[in-house]
UniProtKB/TrEMBL annotation:
NCBIfam families: S20. Keywords: Ribonucleoprotein, Ribosomal protein, RNA-binding, rRNA-binding. GO terms for biological process: translation. It comes from the Bacteria. Binds directly to 16S ribosomal RNA. One of its GO terms (cellular component) is small ribosomal subunit. Belongs to the bacterial ribosomal protein bS20 family. This is Small ribosomal subunit protein bS20.
Amino acid sequence: MRSSVKRVREAVEANDLDTAKDAYKMACRKLDQAAAKNVIHKNVASRTKSRLNAAIKKIAQAA
């Protein structure tokens, strides 16, 4: 889960939109699975997904 989130952040820092979007899909899946198994709270998963998506949108506008 953490490595998936890290991949998204690294892609955003590198301004690689396509890789960031693909990594975001995987990270969302991993976060949802972790929330379903009570590894993390569902609100933490939602907040993390929201922040990652905002970062992706920010580089998409800049591109």
